């Protein structure tokens, strides 16, 4: 018997059982911290153990602490599931164990990412010829996009960041909406630009950047404008086309944080919400959100491939660099050696096709609307703001404490799982519908559980 078969069969047996049980599985974790430390902790064994027994024990002991975030009734944060084709491709990715950094050590990985990047750019309405990088998630996609932006806008001002760094550089203003995601601030900290570079732009009551406020704040000098497609609370999308026009009039770079909202471009019904998105200079999004591939899978696109490569690329005598069109992935992201993330993205796109991606996005949005309508019909909660995409904000009328108590009860109940947030100074329960497998029955079952758990 192959040395691989016994241990991989054990893993497959558990994995398929877990996936088959997802429709009825408790969504939240069923174990305490102390219980998990008791079963998964302890001292490192002095002697090695049988690999099959190790996997069996790992599955048995970890299972109570697994949050069923792939469940059709998981609505916390913005987390998709994993489609069958994407998950199977991810298994192959582990078996092949390719280092995707250089073409020479992962030719198939390189070509698959080149192809998937081109397909995605077309699907998302981006200009032909944009460069694409496969990163861990929107955090590193925003990091990469802002790194390229800093190098480019300072280069235009006569400052070579690659050689001279940021010490003594002309100040760069980063104009971003009040409702921006925290990954923008964190990326600027990582880059050494600091959050003090941010100029906050006023937003409307739905969380969209106000173009009039942006116009008033724009000035001469190196600048980056961060537009957002998909406010993490309301789902609202900035008027990206108008933002691009205003920013480019003053020579600013436009970076789009489209972690989930950029996928609206894949839907003919929703595409108007991102009109003008192709005018931007860089775009960040996640495949592990609305494309439903396994973690981790983020994407960065850039309309200036030369600037992208100049910022992120690496050269060394010991490396064998691609030639004659061979694509080295390390030229497009911050990692040197990394997992071949593109295989799962490629498989997901082929299995879904253009129509399937559009249907996935449209269904999630329709189910979010169903959530809002049915919860509002109970008369026991209020829906805050409009349901623009897949996000729903729910509040128990009255004190914040009642809303927070409801969130805690829902999470402990296990029928479904939602997270909490603060929106416009009020506590709210945030529902995000991002999973390909979520059904109307999942929504109705979840609504019934929520209504039954409302305090008072």
TrEMBL record:
The keyword Transit peptide does not apply. InterPro entries: Aromatic_deC, PyrdxlP-dep_de-COase, PyrdxlP-dep_Trfase, PyrdxlP-dep_Trfase_major, PyrdxlP-dep_Trfase_small. Gene3D superfamilies: Aspartate Aminotransferase, domain 1, dopa decarboxylase, N-terminal domain, Type I PLP-dependent aspartate aminotransferase-like (Major domain). Its cofactor is pyridoxal 5'-phosphate. This is Pyridoxal phosphate-dependent decarboxylase family protein. Signal peptide: none annotated. It comes from the Bacteria. Belongs to the group II decarboxylase family. Keywords: Decarboxylase, Lyase, Pyridoxal phosphate.
